[in-house]
Amino acid sequence: KYNTKSIKSTNLYVNNKISNSFTVKAVAYPSNGIQITKSSSNSLFKISSITKPFVQLWNLFIALLSSTIRSNTKILKDKMKSSSMELGWLKRGTGGSISRTIEVWTFAIRFLFKYLKVEKLKKGEKEIYSKAKKEIAIILRDKLLELGPTFIKLGQLLSTRIDILPREYIDALELLQDKVPGFSGELAVSIIEEEFGKPISQIYDSFNTTPLAAASLGQVHLATLNGKTLAIKIQRQGLKNLFDMDLKNIKVLAVILDKLDPKTDGASRDWVSIYEESAKLLYKEIDYKLEALNSIRFKENFANNPWVKVPDVYLNLTSPRVVTMEYVPGIKINDIAKIEAAGIDRKLLAKRSAESYLTQLCRHGFFHCDPHPGNIACDNVEGGRLIYYDFGMMDELKLNVREGLVNLIFSVYENEPREACNALEQIDVLKKGVDRVSIEKVARVFLNEFNQGVESGKWTNQLTPEEQKEIRRKRRVQLGADLFSVGNDVPFKFPPTFTFVFRAFTSLDGIGKGLDSKYDLPRLAQPFLKELIDLRDGSAFLSLLKSYGKKLGWRPIDINNAITSPRQIANVNSVITKMEQGDLKLRVRVIESERAFQRMEIVQNNMALAIAASGFINMGLILSTIGSPQGQMSLAAKALFGLGGLFGIQLPIGFIKLKSLDKKLASIKEST
Fold this sequence. Notes:
By secondary structure, the protein is an alpha+beta fold. The protein contains 24 helices and 18 strands. It starts with 8 loop residues before the first strand and ends with a helix.
């Protein structure tokens, strides 16, 4: 068709690396035009000169060809990676628990050594140290992806802790929020058709097979129906089997933690109950019908709040593995650059995130357990509207716990240590019947510090390191013996439900600090309490009357005390009389003696372990040398060596406990 007179020619090589794709290795052409002719070889093309007007057309063609090749290659590689990951999850879900345990702990130990190796570079050049952290963060992210949804959840939680983890780790783990490799669009279509029992063309007007976002449990596709754009969330395959496998390992870990938890902070944690609560919510999260109902309930709770948006759900197009929702695009709440570009006030957004969560806990009692940046977005509606997604992991506080939580918050801000302890009993955090003298004294000191911060506007985390150190020193002087007493008595409990309250607060705190460097949840909560005052007694007016009645001494309890005071004086006189007659015995608590006895108990345990270990090992040596054929060891000798090792391995733990106690006692002694 064109002038094919050849001036000079060159070769174009094509290298087939992946099925249905290829990569151009080199292209050369003369300045006055070219023409492609295929040679005898399947991978060799001749490029001959043609007329000059077609040079620009050829340049455009080559640019489009290269772009398409790169794009298709990337898509194919992503699909292969995703398919490999999905197959790996399915294999792990149907494999043995022992092999899974070995895989998890092997990675944990290897990663620990790599982490320690990187930390040695801390004192060297910053660029080398930063590069090493980026590399190890990518290793961590990729392995969490490989291990599956349970560990991706852990990565999502860590990705919000900008105040704990270095930026290199945050950047790598943020991809776990909504950039987990997705499964193929064809598989998504087959799951939808299987769930609803008809072709996808009869369900939606159109369906985009390219996922919009992918997370640990599923991925989201866009579709249209009756002119509306919808978001379709489709669940990954084999999740239940994988959860069954991982939760077996986690239950073993919970049992071990129950036995090893030293409880030196005065709190008794039931790790098995925490595991059971976590497992219950995790299994609920893979029921998309329940998620849809949770979404509707959450939306109704915030119906009168214009700056909280919850997408509508279509129950007729929802099944246990597929949920159809209104498509509400937004900016990820940790994407600071886009938030600022949209003109959204970051401080207002941080304040609203705190208020919305306090409303969930205190007013509704129905709260989002997983508020990481992949599940919360924002837009510029109402000056900064919060958009909540993913309502699979929700929990609910009982009415008495909700009331106790409100009472606790008010008693903290009103500086009432006794009322705070009563509220802790109400929410089942403080055990009933314990000696509250030391606990109330500790509460009094901390509440005084808190309220001084409220009045001065300067909080502890805003002080210089020297000022913070001085405050800690003064606190030890005041509370040394009482903190020791609280630590020994273990008066506190850790209710399983609060696991997710603290988890959510952890995520929320990380988000808030990313939006506002001066973010402080207690400070933001103070003005919000005025909106919660009606929750205390069911009516804001009634709460106001009670407040004035307390100040004036007109409460029923005050009137009762005034009337019964003569009887109380008689009781006091009776007690004094019994003391004089020797009929009343007093129990005196000597903290110094308790410290000495505690140390003595640890030393004696260590001595007993050492004697038992050496005794069994000696008996094993005797049996292995007497009465056994040369080169062989009897079963009894093996058993004795095993017992010796069992007792001996506990010795280092005992020495660590002793060292920890000595350090604690030295700290108390210095402060007093």
